Amino acid sequence: MKRGTLTFLAMALGLLLLPSGCRKEREHQIRIGYQPLAANAPLYVGMHTGAYKDAGLDCKLVPFQSAVAAMYALQRGEVDVLFAPPLNNIADALAKAPGSFRVVAIHGNDDTHFFEAFLARKSSPIKDLAEFKEGSVGCFPGNFAEKIARRILQDYGVGESVVFKKLDLSAQLGALEGGSVDLLFAFEPLVSIAESKGIAKVLEASPITKHFFSPFPVSGVCISSEFVNKRRETAALFVKTNNAVMEKISRRPGTMADPLAAFTQLEPGLAQRISQVYFSRVTLAQRAATEKVLRLFRDLGVIEALPDMDTLFYEAH
Q1: Quick one: 292 exposed, middle or buried, by C-beta within 10 A (0-12, 13-18, 19+)?
Q2: Residues of the chain with pLDDT under 70
Q3: Which residues neighbour 291 within 8 Å (Cβ) at sequence distance 6 or greater?
Q4: Diameter of the chain by CA atoms?
Q5: Cβ atoms within 10 Å of 42's Cβ, excluding its own
Q6: Which CATH architecture has domain 27-111+215-300?
Q7: Sequence-distant (≥ 6) Cβ neighbours of residue 144 within 8 angstroms
Q8: Distance CA 239, CA 230 (A)
Q9: Cα-flanking dihedrals φ and ψ of residue 264, to 5°?
Q10: Separation CA 279–CA 107 (nearest Å)
Q11: At the fourth CATH level, which superfamily is domain 116-205?
Q12: What is the pLDDT, as a whole number, of residue 26?
């Protein structure tokens, strides 16, 4: 037998003898974008507990500081999956590039799960939102936080004179503590951090479901349509594994504590106490709730148009 033939056979035999886990890891490589926010707990649990790896997924995490930058990366093909941009960013991105990605999981608020609160300085004389009539409110950049917060404040008779200041996550607590804003419309883990450090007090927790409706989807895990088309098996494996991780969290919420501490730099004790959104696979109920929220966003001017609801979601079968 010729030397070249022997070499080829030896290489083929070596590949066959590789442990199946090693072959799977190479087959199921996936790049996952995320922001280091508490609401991305399923990603942290999946990585920290080895659930993704045990399923054969070879995950590369790509951190981002803003949802807009992360969404651009998904649409440019720099990441395959994105945890978990706000629904308004999803709608805006799909308006510019219809069908470029799909939603595979929903994170949101309901009567027992939430991630947001209105904060005031610990020393502020304001005791609840009903006492706030004028001043400034810090919030995340973009129009979602401002539009929602302004609509909530209108229920307390607060007019358009209130000034909203768009602040990056890293600047929000400093702005509240330093007095450059009177209130902060904040998201976890910032809410719990501000309370634990004695910087702020909560004026109203879970205002979204109190002033709008429940359930209230707020974000979604997205997957590139190109990735689904080219790597259908890997895409399906990720969705099924992530669904299992979310179910585990629902049964045992304490599972989140250590992964949250590892990925968000929260102290372990604080990671156990923060408020969390719910995490859900795509269901008929979640589809309907998501459409209801997107219609509200359109009416409030948060988004210009609804995405195609028939192609918005992807379910692995």
Answers
A1: middle
A2: 1-26
A3: 306, 309
A4: 90
A5: 26
A6: 3-Layer(aba) Sandwich (3.40)
A7: 86, 88, 89, 297, 302
A8: 15
A9: -115, 0
A10: 5
A11: Periplasmic binding protein-like II (3.40.190.10)
A12: 54
- Written as six digits, the tokens of 65 are 């500081």
Integer Cα distance of 206 and 118 in angstroms:
9
Say what the pLDDT of residue 6 is: 44
The bridge status of strand 183-187 relative to strand 116-121 is antiparallel
Show the 3-state SS of the chain: CCHHHHHHHHHHHHHHHCCHHHHHHHHCEEEEEECCCHHHHHHHHHHHCCHHHHCCCEEEEEECCCHHHHHHHHHCCCCCEECCCEHHHHHHHHHHCCCCEEEEEEEEECCCCCCEEEEEECCCCCCCHHHCCCCEEEECCCCHHHHHHHHHHHCCCCCCCCEEEECCHHHHHHHHHHCCCCEEEEECCHHHHHHHCCCEEEEEECHHHHHCCCCEEEEEEEEEHHHHHHCHHHHHHHHHHHHHHHHHHHHCHHHHHHHHHHHHCCCHHHHHHCCCCEEEECCHHHHHHHHHHHHHHHHHCCCCCCCCCCCCECCCC
User: Taking a C-beta distance cutoff of 8 angstroms, is the pair 253, 45 a contact?
Assistant: no
Q: Encode burial over 242-262: b for 16+ CB neighbours within 10 A, e otherwise.
A: bbebbebbeeeeebbbbbbbe
Break the chain into its structural domains and give their ranges.
27-111+215-300, 116-205
Q: Residue 285 corresponds to which tokens in the numbers above?
A: 């109920």
**Residue where the block lists tokens 């919030």:** 139
Q: Dig out the tokens for 200 from the structure.
A: 């702020």
Is there a shared CATH topology between the 27-111+215-300 domain and the 116-205 domain? Answer: yes
Structure tokens at 133: 């009539």
